[in-house]
Write a structure and sequence with these properties.
The structure is a homotrimer of 244-residue chains. By secondary structure, the first copy, chain A, is an alpha+beta fold. Chain A folds into two domains: 2-147, 3-Layer(aba) Sandwich (Rossmann fold), CATH 3.40.50; 159-241, Bacterial fluorinating enzyme like (Elongation Factor Tu (Ef-tu), domain 3, Beta Barrel), CATH 2.40.30. The first copy, chain A, has five helices and 14 strands. Chain A has helices at residues 14-25, 43-53, 96-100, 122-135, 226-230, and strands at residues 2-6, 31-35, 62-66, 77-82, 85-90, 106-110, 144-147, 159-165, 171-176, 185-188, 191-193, 207-211, 216-221, 239-241. In chain A, the strands form three sheets. In chain A, strands 2-1-3-5-4-6-7 form a seven-stranded mixed β-sheet. In chain A, helix 1 (14-25) runs parallel beside helix 4 (122-135). The longest helix of chain A has 14 residues, at 122-135. The radius of gyration of chain A is 19 Å and the shape is elongated. The B-C interface holds B 1, 3-4, 10, 30, 32-37, 49, 53, 56-58, 61, 164, 166-168, 197-201, 210-213, 222-223 and C 9-17, 19-20, 23-24, 27, 40-41, 69-73, 75, 118-121, 124-125.
């Protein structure tokens, strides 16, 4: 299975061109759109998101990850294996957190270039081809070169900031919920949140934080839009107050 | 074929996670996104929509239907068979109209839970798995329990209200068009509409009602946006005046 | 491979119904969404877009192209082969540029109609079926009739206008970049652009034009939104000043 994780948007003709290229090289692979609305140009938020998503996918999954404002410049393209899964994308930090959180990580630089290479769309021209070959079990060793480590590495710890806002207005943070006791209070943009198990556990219009379906601390209002209400944006900080 | 019908939105990472889970359990099934923008939290509008869509799909199709503000609380999960098709979703009314409109309907409660179950994403953790097993012909009898009827049932008659507005601004209603004579006038938010066969049958900027591609009465303006013009919203009523 | 190119939008239930129909007739074909946000009703912009996209897809690809405000009226439906690829859609100009730019083009009128035909959704009821049959190698000769030429033909030369604006705000034009020397200046809505290879080649916030990934002249601002900044819209003209 090949999984796409980009900032290409869902309305533009970029994802489809990338998929067509994948199908050319790996006609029988399933291709899944995970997210095409990672915050634009924001490799840092993207790095926390892909690290949280990855463990929910089966081993052997190949992710194409593209948040790539430096496309066409000197930044390198890489393949990372981590936790039994594969990641193809730019070496701009985007893959550094999933790599750091898995002890078995390895990194390769993609040295291969196709004969015709656009300056702005390596997702189609390079990443799609490499991912297709890995997914069909045909590891492209001759197109790669082992690399000791990634060039750009973000801090792999939790990030106490909003990293994604969904269409319901729920605000995902880069804080993993497993380390936060249920009695903790969370404050963001003046709003205060206590824990609840899920939406239906609180009254309509009531805010709460919960451990979301990928294990991150998420802020929400039952049948409401917490991002609109508080003016929350990607990058805003949260404060977590653990119980005494 | 598995068909997805949800309020997850097209931009968020929910649909992709659900699809990946389906592919794990039924790797060779085709999965089709029918609609991910059913009005948020609105099981009533959703129930009329899925009942209208279903007959256009081949027998054996498995629909995953998720408009589920009560996820993680006491509401039950169900499998419904109706008209030779399958429906997996919450027992909150969403599946009640398609069930009521088919004489052969049967209902099962999903008693199975996976070892790891999120509180907010049963679409991925439960419905995807059950639907995958049904679709590949491996009916999960041991995960289900026959149920006499659905717990929540909406009126299965027509609904003279707007239930969906598309990106052209066309307003779908819950009124089946087959029972409305062509000479009828329709009034909504002060606008008045007579019947036309299709868009090109009326002048540019002219409004009309027509029997849409799933048999519902729909309001439109040729090359215009009727919802914007009249301020129509999901839930607004329409009045149908049949000819004398 | 079947590729979809429409103005159906990504949020509405039109694409899914069309795909389901394709899967009924050609269950093992890959179906790729190229673009569902071609400018609404704008067959002219669509014609330049599909002509630019097509050469990047492998021979044998079948495109379903729908920008079809005249659906249900007298306009004919056609199949076009051009450059070894197939195109199914309305005869309203949409397919005329890709046809004119390939010396081997042939045209057929679709004379077939299904027993149940909606007035507003020929993409599902006609085009999906014809495309599925072509894609699986079962050319539907009995449903077609050779036609000397298309009824509606647009000028197949370059179009010095904006034809698409992506979600980053980048403005695609109908001007093929291969004929524009790198030293050229481009003016649009009072903004002036010189050439750069790609985004990272200019400073943050700086505008430039470049040959985009399908060979069209595109206007952009590095990490900015050129369409918002200049108020650019589809249809706006550009002026190209070649160096002396």
């Amino acid at each position: 299975m090949i999984v796409l994780f980009t900032d290409f948007g869902t309305s533009d003709p970029y994802v489809g061109q990338m998929k067509a290229r994948i199908h050319e090289y790996a006609p029988s692979q399933q291709v899944v759109d995970l997210l095409h609305e990672t915050p634009d140009y924001n490799a840092h938020a993207g790095a926390h998101l892909i690290a949280a998503f990855a463990p929910n996918f089966p081993p052997g999954t190949v992710f194409i990850c593209v948040v790539d404002p430096g496309v066409g410049t000197g930044r390198e393209s890489v393949v990372v294996t981590a936790g039994g899964r594969w990641f193809v994308g730019p070496d701009n930090g985007l893959l550094s957190i999933v790599a750091a959180r898995n002890a078995d990580s390895k990194v390769w630089r993609i040295k291969w270039q196709p004969e015709v290479l656009s300056t702005s769309f390596h997702g189609r021209d390079i990443f799609a081809v490499i991912a297709a070959e890995i997914a069909k079990g045909d590891f492209p060793a001759n197109k790669l070169e082992a690399k000791a480590k990634l060039h750009v590495e973000f801090d792999a710890g939790d990030l106490a900031r909003v990293i994604y806002i969904d269409h319901f207005g729920n605000a995902w943070t880069g804080q993993r919920a497993s380390s936060i006791p249920a009695g903790s209070r969370v404050v963001a943009k003046g709003g205060e949140f206590s824990n609840a198990e899920t939406f239906g556990s609180v009254g309509k219009g009531e805010g709460f934080w919960f451990a979301n379906s990928v294990g991150l601390l998420e802020l929400a209002i039952n049948r409401g839009n917490v991002a609109d209400k508080l003016g929350l944006k990607v990058g805003d900080t949260i404060q977590v107050y653990k119980p005494n």
